[in-house]
Protein backbone atom coordinates (compact mmCIF):
# COMPACT_ATOMS: atom_id res chain seq x y z
CA UNK A 1 0.00 0.00 0.00
CA UNK A 2 1.48 3.35 -1.03
CA UNK A 3 0.66 6.74 0.51
CA UNK A 4 -1.13 9.09 -1.96
CA UNK A 5 0.42 12.52 -2.23
CA UNK A 6 -0.65 15.88 -3.74
CA UNK A 7 1.84 18.41 -5.09
CA UNK A 8 0.49 21.96 -5.34
CA UNK A 9 2.71 24.15 -7.50
CA UNK A 10 3.70 21.15 -9.56
CA UNK A 11 4.70 23.28 -12.57
CA UNK A 12 7.43 25.21 -10.73
CA UNK A 13 11.04 24.18 -10.21
CA UNK A 14 10.56 22.72 -6.73
CA UNK A 15 7.26 21.11 -7.77
CA UNK A 16 8.94 19.41 -10.74
CA UNK A 17 11.71 18.16 -8.45
CA UNK A 18 9.05 16.77 -6.08
CA UNK A 19 7.42 14.85 -8.96
CA UNK A 20 10.81 13.29 -9.78
CA UNK A 21 11.47 12.34 -6.14
CA UNK A 22 7.97 11.00 -5.39
CA UNK A 23 7.91 8.93 -8.60
CA UNK A 24 11.03 7.11 -7.39
CA UNK A 25 9.91 6.90 -3.74
CA UNK A 26 9.15 3.41 -2.37
CA UNK A 27 6.19 4.50 -0.18
CA UNK A 28 4.68 7.68 -1.65
CA UNK A 29 2.73 7.94 -4.88
CA UNK A 30 1.65 11.06 -6.82
CA UNK A 31 -2.17 11.25 -6.77
CA UNK A 32 -2.82 14.91 -7.54
CA UNK A 33 -0.95 17.75 -9.24
CA UNK A 34 -2.03 21.37 -8.76
CA UNK A 35 -1.06 24.46 -10.77
CA UNK A 36 -2.17 28.06 -11.23
CA UNK A 37 -1.84 29.71 -14.66
CA UNK A 38 -1.17 26.29 -16.25
CA UNK A 39 -4.15 24.50 -14.67
CA UNK A 40 -6.12 22.39 -17.13
CA UNK A 41 -3.06 21.38 -19.17
CA UNK A 42 -1.32 18.00 -18.99
CA UNK A 43 1.87 17.90 -16.88
CA UNK A 44 3.93 16.80 -19.91
CA UNK A 45 2.88 19.90 -21.86
CA UNK A 46 4.35 22.23 -19.23
CA UNK A 47 7.27 20.27 -17.79
CA UNK A 48 9.84 19.25 -20.43
CA UNK A 49 11.37 16.61 -18.14
CA UNK A 50 8.11 14.90 -17.14
CA UNK A 51 7.60 11.58 -18.93
CA UNK A 52 5.62 8.33 -18.72
CA UNK A 53 2.11 8.18 -17.26
CA UNK A 54 2.78 11.23 -15.09
CA UNK A 55 3.04 13.36 -18.25
CA UNK A 56 -0.63 12.62 -18.97
CA UNK A 57 -1.91 13.78 -15.59
CA UNK A 58 -4.10 16.86 -15.82
CA UNK A 59 -3.02 19.81 -13.70
CA UNK A 60 -5.81 20.82 -11.30
CA UNK A 61 -6.42 24.38 -10.14
CA UNK A 62 -4.48 25.26 -6.98
CA UNK A 63 -7.72 25.63 -5.01
CA UNK A 64 -9.43 22.47 -6.38
CA UNK A 65 -10.68 19.99 -3.78
CA UNK A 66 -8.08 17.38 -2.91
CA UNK A 67 -8.94 13.71 -3.47
CA UNK A 68 -10.09 12.02 -0.22
CA UNK A 69 -7.34 9.44 -0.46
CA UNK A 70 -4.55 12.02 -0.38
CA UNK A 71 -2.76 11.84 2.98
CA UNK A 72 0.07 14.30 2.38
CA UNK A 73 0.22 17.63 0.57
CA UNK A 74 3.36 19.42 -0.55
CA UNK A 75 2.68 23.12 -1.10
CA UNK A 76 5.35 24.39 -3.50
CA UNK A 77 3.67 27.77 -4.00
CA UNK A 78 4.81 31.38 -3.68
CA UNK A 79 4.69 32.77 -0.14
CA UNK A 80 1.39 34.50 0.45
CA UNK A 81 -0.43 32.07 -1.87
CA UNK A 82 0.66 29.01 0.13
CA UNK A 83 -1.02 29.96 3.44
CA UNK A 84 -4.61 29.47 2.23
CA UNK A 85 -3.79 26.15 0.53
CA UNK A 86 -2.08 24.93 3.70
CA UNK A 87 -5.11 25.93 5.76
CA UNK A 88 -7.51 24.11 3.40
CA UNK A 89 -5.36 20.94 3.34
CA UNK A 90 -5.16 20.83 7.15
CA UNK A 91 -8.94 21.38 7.41
CA UNK A 92 -9.37 18.40 5.08
CA UNK A 93 -7.31 16.28 7.48
CA UNK A 94 -4.11 16.06 5.42
CA UNK A 95 -0.54 16.38 6.62
CA UNK A 96 1.33 19.24 4.97
CA UNK A 97 4.92 20.08 4.12
CA UNK A 98 5.00 23.73 3.04
CA UNK A 99 8.00 24.75 0.93
CA UNK A 100 7.16 28.44 1.09
CA UNK A 101 8.09 30.88 3.84
CA UNK A 102 4.51 31.21 5.11
CA UNK A 103 4.94 29.12 8.26
CA UNK A 104 8.66 29.54 9.02
CA UNK A 105 8.15 32.36 11.51
CA UNK A 106 6.54 32.36 14.94
CA UNK A 107 5.64 36.04 15.06
CA UNK A 108 3.38 38.00 12.75
CA UNK A 109 5.57 41.09 13.17
CA UNK A 110 8.64 39.23 11.94
CA UNK A 111 6.71 37.71 9.02
CA UNK A 112 5.45 41.17 8.08
CA UNK A 113 8.91 42.73 8.35
CA UNK A 114 10.41 40.03 6.13
CA UNK A 115 7.60 39.69 3.56
CA UNK A 116 5.92 43.08 3.73
CA UNK A 117 2.39 41.71 3.99
CA UNK A 118 -0.14 40.47 6.52
CA UNK A 119 -0.53 36.73 7.05
CA UNK A 120 -4.05 35.26 6.71
CA UNK A 121 -3.56 32.32 9.10
CA UNK A 122 -1.41 33.33 12.06
CA UNK A 123 -3.41 30.87 14.20
CA UNK A 124 -1.38 28.08 12.53
CA UNK A 125 2.02 29.51 13.53
CA UNK A 126 2.05 27.51 16.78
CA UNK A 127 1.21 24.28 14.99
CA UNK A 128 4.01 24.57 12.42
CA UNK A 129 7.35 22.89 13.07
CA UNK A 130 10.41 24.42 11.42
CA UNK A 131 11.70 21.40 9.52
CA UNK A 132 15.47 21.56 9.66
CA UNK A 133 15.55 17.80 10.07
CA UNK A 134 18.94 17.44 11.73
CA UNK A 135 17.88 19.65 14.66
CA UNK A 136 14.11 19.08 14.91
CA UNK A 137 13.52 15.38 14.27
CA UNK A 138 11.27 14.51 17.18
CA UNK A 139 8.99 17.53 16.68
CA UNK A 140 8.74 16.80 12.96
CA UNK A 141 7.70 13.20 13.65
CA UNK A 142 4.72 14.44 15.70
CA UNK A 143 3.69 17.25 13.39
CA UNK A 144 0.94 17.63 10.80
CA UNK A 145 2.43 20.90 9.43
CA UNK A 146 6.11 21.27 8.65
CA UNK A 147 7.54 24.54 7.41
CA UNK A 148 10.37 23.49 5.12
CA UNK A 149 13.37 25.80 5.70
CA UNK A 150 14.61 28.21 3.05
CA UNK A 151 17.63 27.25 0.97
CA UNK A 152 19.96 30.00 2.27
CA UNK A 153 18.98 29.33 5.91
CA UNK A 154 19.56 25.57 5.44
CA UNK A 155 23.09 26.08 4.13
CA UNK A 156 23.82 28.61 6.89
CA UNK A 157 22.20 27.04 9.95
CA UNK A 158 23.58 23.53 9.46
CA UNK A 159 27.20 24.55 10.17
CA UNK A 160 26.37 27.52 12.42
CA UNK A 161 24.09 25.89 15.01
CA UNK A 162 26.58 23.36 16.48
CA UNK A 163 29.26 26.02 16.92
CA UNK A 164 26.82 28.50 18.45
CA UNK A 165 25.58 25.80 20.83
CA UNK A 166 29.17 25.17 21.89
CA UNK A 167 29.42 28.87 22.82
CA UNK A 168 32.53 29.38 20.70
CA UNK A 169 31.32 32.01 18.22
CA UNK A 170 31.13 35.78 18.53
CA UNK A 171 27.42 36.37 18.07
CA UNK A 172 27.64 39.81 16.49
CA UNK A 173 29.35 40.54 13.21
CA UNK A 174 28.71 37.13 11.63
CA UNK A 175 29.07 37.52 7.87
CA UNK A 176 27.23 35.12 5.57
CA UNK A 177 28.03 35.37 1.87
CA UNK A 178 25.99 33.08 -0.39
CA UNK A 179 25.89 32.23 -4.08
CA UNK A 180 22.89 30.60 -5.69
CA UNK A 181 22.03 29.13 -9.08
CA UNK A 182 19.18 30.83 -10.96
CA UNK A 183 16.58 28.14 -10.17
CA UNK A 184 16.57 29.58 -6.64
CA UNK A 185 14.47 32.44 -8.00
CA UNK A 186 11.76 30.14 -9.39
CA UNK A 187 10.41 29.64 -12.89
CA UNK A 188 8.28 32.70 -13.43
CA UNK A 189 9.50 35.16 -16.09
CA UNK A 190 11.61 38.01 -14.75
CA UNK A 191 13.87 40.39 -16.71
CA UNK A 192 16.69 39.85 -14.18
CA UNK A 193 16.72 36.15 -15.02
CA UNK A 194 16.97 36.46 -18.82
CA UNK A 195 19.97 34.64 -20.32
CA UNK A 196 21.70 37.88 -21.34
CA UNK A 197 21.29 39.37 -17.88
CA UNK A 198 22.70 36.32 -16.07
CA UNK A 199 25.26 34.84 -18.43
CA UNK A 200 28.96 35.74 -17.88
CA UNK A 201 28.03 37.73 -14.79
CA UNK A 202 27.66 37.52 -11.00
CA UNK A 203 25.64 39.96 -8.97
CA UNK A 204 24.62 40.62 -5.37
CA UNK A 205 20.98 41.35 -4.57
CA UNK A 206 18.54 41.60 -1.69
CA UNK A 207 20.40 44.29 0.27
CA UNK A 208 20.17 45.94 2.74
CA UNK A 209 18.34 43.02 4.41
CA UNK A 210 17.31 39.94 2.46
CA UNK A 211 14.14 38.28 3.84
CA UNK A 212 16.05 35.11 4.82
CA UNK A 213 18.09 37.12 7.33
CA UNK A 214 15.09 37.15 9.69
CA UNK A 215 14.71 33.37 9.29
CA UNK A 216 18.38 32.68 10.05
CA UNK A 217 18.39 34.90 13.13
CA UNK A 218 15.10 33.52 14.44
CA UNK A 219 16.15 29.88 14.14
CA UNK A 220 19.73 30.37 15.30
CA UNK A 221 18.09 31.65 18.48
CA UNK A 222 15.42 28.92 18.43
CA UNK A 223 17.93 26.06 18.15
CA UNK A 224 20.68 27.44 20.38
CA UNK A 225 19.29 30.12 22.72
CA UNK A 226 21.89 32.56 21.37
CA UNK A 227 20.77 35.81 19.81
CA UNK A 228 22.88 36.64 16.77
CA UNK A 229 23.29 39.48 14.32
CA UNK A 230 23.98 38.53 10.76
CA UNK A 231 25.16 40.40 7.74
CA UNK A 232 23.85 38.29 4.85
CA UNK A 233 24.71 39.01 1.22
CA UNK A 234 23.24 36.69 -1.43
CA UNK A 235 24.48 36.52 -5.04
CA UNK A 236 23.05 34.95 -8.17
CA UNK A 237 25.30 32.98 -10.51
CA UNK A 238 24.84 31.86 -14.11
CA UNK A 239 24.21 28.21 -13.25
CA UNK A 240 20.92 26.33 -13.02
CA UNK A 241 21.18 24.85 -9.54
CA UNK A 242 23.52 24.80 -6.56
CA UNK A 243 24.25 26.98 -3.57
CA UNK A 244 27.55 27.82 -1.86
CA UNK A 245 27.53 29.69 1.45
CA UNK A 246 30.65 31.15 3.06
CA UNK A 247 30.48 32.03 6.76
CA UNK A 248 33.12 34.42 8.09
CA UNK A 249 33.31 33.72 11.81
CA UNK A 250 35.33 34.82 14.78
CA UNK A 251 35.39 33.34 18.27
CA UNK A 252 37.57 31.10 20.39
CA UNK A 253 39.23 27.67 20.19
CA UNK A 254 38.95 27.55 16.39
CA UNK A 255 41.12 24.41 16.36
CA UNK A 256 38.20 22.53 17.96
CA UNK A 257 35.57 23.66 15.45
CA UNK A 258 36.17 20.91 12.93
CA UNK A 259 35.89 18.31 15.66
CA UNK A 260 32.59 19.75 16.89
CA UNK A 261 31.09 19.73 13.40
CA UNK A 262 32.44 16.26 12.71
CA UNK A 263 30.96 14.82 15.92
CA UNK A 264 27.60 16.60 15.46
CA UNK A 265 27.06 15.18 11.99
CA UNK A 266 28.90 11.84 12.24
CA UNK A 267 25.67 9.81 12.00
CA UNK A 268 23.74 12.14 9.72
CA UNK A 269 22.94 10.62 6.33
CA UNK A 270 22.74 13.97 4.55
CA UNK A 271 25.48 16.10 6.11
CA UNK A 272 29.13 15.43 5.35
CA UNK A 273 31.93 17.29 7.10
CA UNK A 274 35.00 17.24 4.87
CA UNK A 275 38.54 16.77 6.25
CA UNK A 276 40.00 19.94 7.76
CA UNK A 277 41.22 22.28 5.02
CA UNK A 278 39.15 20.62 2.27
CA UNK A 279 36.43 22.89 0.90
CA UNK A 280 33.25 21.73 -0.85
CA UNK A 281 31.87 22.59 -4.28
CA UNK A 282 28.34 22.74 -5.66
CA UNK A 283 29.14 19.98 -8.17
CA UNK A 284 29.85 17.64 -5.24
CA UNK A 285 26.23 17.85 -4.04
CA UNK A 286 24.28 18.55 -7.24
CA UNK A 287 21.25 16.26 -7.53
CA UNK A 288 21.76 14.88 -4.01
CA UNK A 289 20.05 15.73 -0.72
CA UNK A 290 23.46 16.30 0.89
CA UNK A 291 25.02 19.32 2.55
CA UNK A 292 28.83 19.31 2.39
CA UNK A 293 30.72 21.42 4.93
CA UNK A 294 34.37 22.47 4.89
CA UNK A 295 36.34 24.59 7.34
CA UNK A 296 39.52 26.62 6.99
CA UNK A 297 41.00 27.86 10.28
CA UNK A 298 42.62 31.26 9.74
CA UNK A 299 44.03 31.70 13.24
CA UNK A 300 43.23 31.16 16.92
CA UNK A 301 40.16 33.41 16.66
CA UNK A 302 39.02 33.28 13.05
CA UNK A 303 37.76 30.68 10.60
CA UNK A 304 35.89 30.43 7.34
CA UNK A 305 33.27 27.76 6.86
CA UNK A 306 31.91 26.85 3.44
CA UNK A 307 28.76 24.80 2.96
CA UNK A 308 27.23 23.55 -0.28
CA UNK A 309 23.77 22.24 -1.09
CA UNK A 310 21.63 21.72 -4.14
CA UNK A 311 19.04 24.48 -3.61
CA UNK A 312 16.31 22.31 -5.17
CA UNK A 313 17.17 19.23 -3.03
CA UNK A 314 18.46 19.82 0.51
CA UNK A 315 17.42 23.46 -0.01
CA UNK A 316 13.82 22.59 -0.97
CA UNK A 317 12.21 19.40 -2.35
CA UNK A 318 14.75 16.89 -0.99
CA UNK A 319 14.46 18.25 2.53
CA UNK A 320 10.65 18.33 2.06
CA UNK A 321 10.68 14.58 1.32
CA UNK A 322 13.07 14.00 4.26
CA UNK A 323 10.51 15.80 6.45
CA UNK A 324 7.62 13.80 4.99
CA UNK A 325 9.51 10.55 5.66
CA UNK A 326 9.81 11.55 9.32
CA UNK A 327 6.12 12.60 9.54
CA UNK A 328 5.01 9.19 8.25
CA UNK A 329 7.46 7.15 10.34
CA UNK A 330 9.39 5.99 7.27
CA UNK A 331 13.12 5.52 6.79
CA UNK A 332 14.34 9.14 6.71
CA UNK A 333 16.45 8.47 3.63
CA UNK A 334 13.68 6.78 1.57
CA UNK A 335 13.62 8.04 -2.01
CA UNK A 336 16.54 10.42 -1.51
CA UNK A 337 19.92 10.35 -3.24
CA UNK A 338 23.08 10.53 -1.18
CA UNK A 339 25.34 10.55 -4.24
CA UNK A 340 25.61 13.59 -6.49
CA UNK A 341 25.07 13.75 -10.23
CA UNK A 342 28.73 13.97 -11.08
CA UNK A 343 30.43 15.12 -13.26
N1 LIG B 1 13.52 27.47 -6.09
C1 LIG B 1 14.18 27.19 -4.97
O1 LIG B 1 15.38 26.88 -4.98
C2 LIG B 1 13.46 27.22 -3.65
C3 LIG B 1 14.16 26.81 -2.51
C4 LIG B 1 13.50 26.81 -1.26
C5 LIG B 1 12.18 27.25 -1.18
N2 LIG B 1 11.54 27.67 -2.29
C6 LIG B 1 10.14 28.12 -2.15
O2 LIG B 1 9.30 27.12 -2.72
C7 LIG B 1 8.15 27.75 -3.29
C8 LIG B 1 8.08 27.34 -4.78
O3 LIG B 1 9.26 27.81 -5.40
P1 LIG B 1 9.59 27.51 -6.94
O4 LIG B 1 10.99 27.96 -7.15
O5 LIG B 1 9.22 26.12 -7.29
O6 LIG B 1 8.59 28.54 -7.66
P2 LIG B 1 8.16 28.62 -9.18
O7 LIG B 1 9.10 27.84 -10.03
O8 LIG B 1 7.97 30.05 -9.50
O9 LIG B 1 6.73 27.88 -9.21
C9 LIG B 1 5.61 28.44 -8.57
C10 LIG B 1 4.45 27.46 -8.62
O10 LIG B 1 3.33 28.05 -7.94
C11 LIG B 1 2.24 28.25 -8.85
N3 LIG B 1 1.68 29.58 -8.57
C12 LIG B 1 2.17 30.78 -8.95
N4 LIG B 1 1.40 31.78 -8.46
C13 LIG B 1 0.40 31.19 -7.77
C14 LIG B 1 -0.72 31.68 -7.04
N5 LIG B 1 -0.97 32.97 -6.93
N6 LIG B 1 -1.54 30.77 -6.46
C15 LIG B 1 -1.31 29.45 -6.55
N7 LIG B 1 -0.26 28.93 -7.24
C16 LIG B 1 0.58 29.79 -7.82
C17 LIG B 1 2.81 28.15 -10.25
O11 LIG B 1 1.79 27.61 -11.08
P3 LIG B 1 1.68 27.96 -12.67
O12 LIG B 1 2.99 27.59 -13.28
O13 LIG B 1 0.55 27.11 -13.13
O14 LIG B 1 1.38 29.43 -12.75
C18 LIG B 1 3.97 27.15 -10.03
O15 LIG B 1 3.48 25.84 -10.04
C19 LIG B 1 8.32 29.27 -3.09
O16 LIG B 1 7.63 29.68 -1.96
C20 LIG B 1 9.84 29.41 -2.88
O17 LIG B 1 10.18 30.54 -2.11
C21 LIG B 1 12.14 27.65 -3.53
- Proportion in helices: 25-40%
User: How many structural domains in the coordinates?
Assistant: 2
- Assign the CATH architecture of the largest domain: 2-Layer Sandwich
Strand order of the largest sheet: 3-2-1-4-5-7-6
Order of helices and strands: EHEHEEHEHEHEHEHEHEEHEEEH
The CATH homologous superfamily of the largest domain is termed: Dihydrodipicolinate Reductase, domain 2
CATH class of the largest domain: Alpha Beta
Radius of gyration: 19 Å
Runs in which pLDDT lies below 50 for 5 or more consecutive residues are: none
Q: So how many helices?
A: 10
- Largest sheet properties: 7 strands, parallel
How would you sum up this structure in a few lines?
With 343 residues, this protein is α/β, with parallel strands linked by helices.
Description:
The chain has 2 domains: about 5-125, 3-Layer(aba) Sandwich (Rossmann fold); about 150-310, 2-Layer Sandwich (Dihydrodipicolinate Reductase, domain 2). The protein contains 10 helices and 14 strands. The protein has helices at about 15-25, 45, 80-90, 110-115, 135-140, 150-165, 195-200, 210-225, 255-265, 315-325; strands at about 5-10, 30-35, 60, 70-75, 95-100, 130, 145, 175-180, 205, 230-235, 245-250, 270-275, 290-300, 300-310. Helix 1 packs across helix 10 (about 315-325), helix 5 packs parallel to helix 10 (about 315-325) and helix 6 (about 150-165) packs parallel to helix 8. It is globular, with a radius of gyration of 19 Å. The two termini are about 35 Å apart. It binds NADP nicotinamide-adenine-dinucleotide phosphate. NADP nicotinamide-adenine-dinucleotide phosphate binds near residues 35, 99, 183 and 188.
Amino acid sequence: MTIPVAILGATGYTGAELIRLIEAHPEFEVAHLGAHSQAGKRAGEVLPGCAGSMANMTLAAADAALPDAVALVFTALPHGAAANSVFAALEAGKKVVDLSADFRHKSHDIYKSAYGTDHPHTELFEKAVYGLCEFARSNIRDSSLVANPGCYPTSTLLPLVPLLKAGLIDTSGIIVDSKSGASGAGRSAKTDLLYCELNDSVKAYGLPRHRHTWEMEEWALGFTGHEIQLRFVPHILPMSRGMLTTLHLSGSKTNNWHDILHKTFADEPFVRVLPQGTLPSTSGVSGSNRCDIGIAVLGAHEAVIVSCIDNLLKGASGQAVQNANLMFGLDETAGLAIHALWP
